[in-house]
Design a protein that fits this description.
The chain is an alpha+beta fold. The chain has helices spanning about 5-35, 40-90, 115-130, 130-135, 195-200, 205-230, 255-265, 280-285, and strands spanning about 105-110, 110-115, 140, 145-155, 175-185, 185-195, 245, 275, 295-300, 305-310, 310-315, 330-335, 340, 345-350, 360-375, 380-385. Helix content is about 35%, strand content about 25%. It starts with 6 loop residues before the first helix and ends with a strand. It comes from Clostridium hominis.
Length: about 375
């Protein structure tokens, strides 16, 4: 059975109804003008029009009823969100004395209060907005160990081969193999202190303030880990890719080296590719020119990004290394090359007593994540000379 949901479809039904009414009026007017009864054909068509109009009226009524139910459900969702935010803000301000039925959304524990899920989800959304590498990476949310299959050659000589063959000659059987990249979870935490003088100020939106503070802390940590990692016993950053372009100097980059770096990413992965670099590296590249004395770094006239380098958007990050010996200073490619297992149920707590001597409260977050490069063809890294 078809569903009539959009305004355009609804308008179409109303127009159909109007056309049918005009046709019905035309049949009646014709008979009146000629002072006669309806013909058998006109009578049959008149009854058919009545039936069609009745069906349209039922459909329009169903659309209106569905809209009313959806609006009611949306209002209920907004009301629940408002209740959680109101209760949470009251708890931070120390105003919680009695919770009405259905409003126990802040769970009191031994170490503080657990922030409602709606607040935690806002914090995660803020993190994605702040950190492009997290929003552009391949994201998973798996409780256990996640095994991502990767296809590769069995060894340097064994792979599936295609070539010309002669009749009655046996084909040589050969094959590649599947390996896997394992993503588990490493525990991480973030702590933000908020002064009580800020909290007691009625002009401050406490919920937005807490969300913003936690988002900045988590974003700074996550972006650094997803770019650089912290060794074998922690998450691996995208700069750990095996697709490396080593440049000739320890403190300078040539235009040709940037072109070579871009070429190390296969054409099929170029569509969503971008650059990530430190602001000091960006300043150096900003001065580079091509053979026609045109700057390589161009303003983005589309307005989507401030700058484009060799046709691709540029993102800046203080977490990227500066131009020194052996430093990995530029990431280029499709950031989906990095897979991130970012587990749900982030625990965020309010610590009211621990920092009372500092006239502050603490907002602490615990979460587990892991990351690894799962497709080295999608990304390339520029490394300075030794």
């Amino acid at each position: 059975m078809p569903e009539f949901r959009t305004l355009a479809e609804e308008k179409g039904l109303e127009e159909q109804r109007a056309d049918l009414l005009n046709e019905m009026n035309g049949i009646v007017k014709g008979a009146k003008a000629e002072t006669r009864t309806l013909t058998d054909e006109e009578e049959t068509r008149f009854e058919a029009i009545k039936s069609e109009i009745k069906k349209i009226d039922k459909t329009l009524a169903a659309i209106e009823e569905e809209r009313a139910l959806n609006n009611k459900e949306q209002r209920n969702k907004e009301t629940a969100k408002e209740k959680e935010e109101r209760t949470f803000e009251a708890f931070i301000r120390g105003q919680v004395s009695e919770t009405r039925s259905g409003e126990q959304n802040v769970t009191i524990g031994n170490n503080g209060a657990i922030i409602p899920v709606t607040i935690a989800n806002r914090i995660i959304k803020e993190v994605k907005d702040i950190s492009p590498i997290l929003s552009r990476a391949t994201l998973y949310s798996v409780k256990g160990t996640l095994k991502i299959p990767v296809w590769s050659k069995a060894n340097t000589t064994h792979d599936i081969t295609v070539g010309y063959q002669e009749e009655f000659t046996e084909l040589t059987a050969d094959a590649g193999k599947f390996t896997s990249v394992d993503l588990s979870g490493y525990l991480a935490g973030a702590l933000s202190l908020i002064g009580k003088s800020v909290i007691t100020n009625s002009q401050v939106d406490v919920v937005s303030f807490v969300v913003s503070e936690m988002a900045q802390k988590i974003a700074a940590f996550l972006e650094g880990e997803l770019l650089n990692g912290s060794g074998s016993s922690a998450a691996q950053g995208i700069t750990a890719t095996s697709n490396i372009k080593k440049v000739a100097a320890t403190d300078a980059i040539k235009a040709d080296e940037l072109i070579d770096l871009q070429a190390q990413v296969k054409q099929v992965y170029q569509q969503n590719a971008c650059w990530i670099m430190n602001s000091s590296t960006f300043t150096a590249i900003k001065k580079l020119k091509d053979n026609n004395n045109r700057y390589l770094l161009q303003d983005d006239i589309t307005g989507e990004f401030p700058y484009r380098l060799l046709g691709k958007p540029v993102f800046l990050s203080d977490n990227m290394a500066t131009m020194t010996n052996d430093a990995k200073v530029i990431v280029y490619g499709d950031l989906k090359a990095l897979s991130v297992n970012f587990r749900e149920n982030i625990e965020i707590q309010i610590l009211k007593e621990k920092y009372a001597t500092q006239h502050a409260i603490g907002v602490v977050s615990w979460f587990e994540f892991d990351s690894k490069v799962t497709d080295n063809q999608k990304v390339a890294v520029l490394e300075m000379a030794s």
